Amino acid sequence: MTFRTVALSSLFLLALSTLPLLAQAKGSSLQEVYENSDFQVTGIAVAPDGRLFVNFPRWSDHYLNAVVEVGKDGSEHPYPDEYWNQWDSKAENAGKQFVCVQSVVADAGALWVLDPAAPLLGPIVRGGPKLVKIDLQSNRASRVYGFGSDVVKANSYLNDIRFDDQRHTAYLTDSGQGAIVVLDLETGKARRVLDGDPSVLPQSGVQVVVDGKPLLRFGKPPQFNADSIALSPDGQYLYYKPITGTALYRIKTDILRDSSASASKVSQAVEKAAEIFPTDGFWMDAKGNLYLSDVTHNGVSRRTPEGKIEQVVSDPRLQWPDSFAEGADGSIYISASHINESPTFNKGKSVRKQPYGVFAFKP
Predict the structure, then answer these.
(1) 16 has a pLDDT exceeding 60
(2) How many other CB atoms sit within 10 Å of the CB of residue 182?
(3) Whole-number Å distance between alpha carbons of 65 and 44
(4) Closest by CA position to 182, among listed 283, 99, 254, 94
(5) pTM, rounded to two decimals
(6) Which of 164, 264, 351, 359 is a plausible cystine mate for 235, CB 3.0–4.6 Å?
(7) Which of 20-34, 61-75, 147-161, 239-253 has the lowest mean pLDDT?
């Protein structure tokens, strides 16, 4: 495996290009903190004490670990241990080992690992879809939330997650089937909401374009469902959208948590918050700034609480900016997963020239 970490002190100024319809934020610079030339990175997490975690989805046979902790010296350690990262398709341990991890999130006491359990983007492994809570002090899994067939459908792919600690609730996007999953962290009960609602499905007429080229799969534009997700600082609104879409949606979380609300009532509560562009990851900071992964322009933009959209960072190394995390000092981290350069979208051949990476910038 070839990888490299870059000292956080080695900052350099990045010349940012001006994009149409986007204001330019000043003073932001991009620094690389991790790179991997062998395995595709999607999710990243930064604990309050600065510990860095990355995950690698099992999207091809070229695969080693699902989740690793990156040491300050650049070393990589399977996390929480080797056993969790050694799932064998012939074994019956899908509920106790990582099958195909898509995202990781860290909070004050835990690393949360979301496993849609759909290796090679194929069928779900029975008993595999789960959310794993790992205690950051003991480095042991403290709870596993399993998802049954009433929550995870045959074509589901649990993608990203946000937590409301005050209300003991987690919200997840299902990018495979198109829905939001609401999980009660105390009882472990989960429900599908907005299942098949237009707000979680691809938007007609929208084409994902990267580096000026339309993204194509088997000669046709791919249709990506709900992926981007963020929670307002007060926990009252959930923001979300499909990748293949330009409409940003939001909904009050109290209706999402109301198990007695009918599907039509929940759907009627959806609001269109803004018109933006195709995005993958979202991150909302404590001030209410919504950071947007701008896959079209290899960058990160943000929507301020006043509704102004401005470009923060643009860099050719940000090939398919994917997942966000935030450090204790306010630094924003973003992964570059190079999805657009994968064989899936290039007639079966990878055209990636740069390593997968994790980058950080000060807003």
Answers:
(1) no
(2) 22
(3) 14
(4) 254
(5) 0.92
(6) 164
(7) 20-34
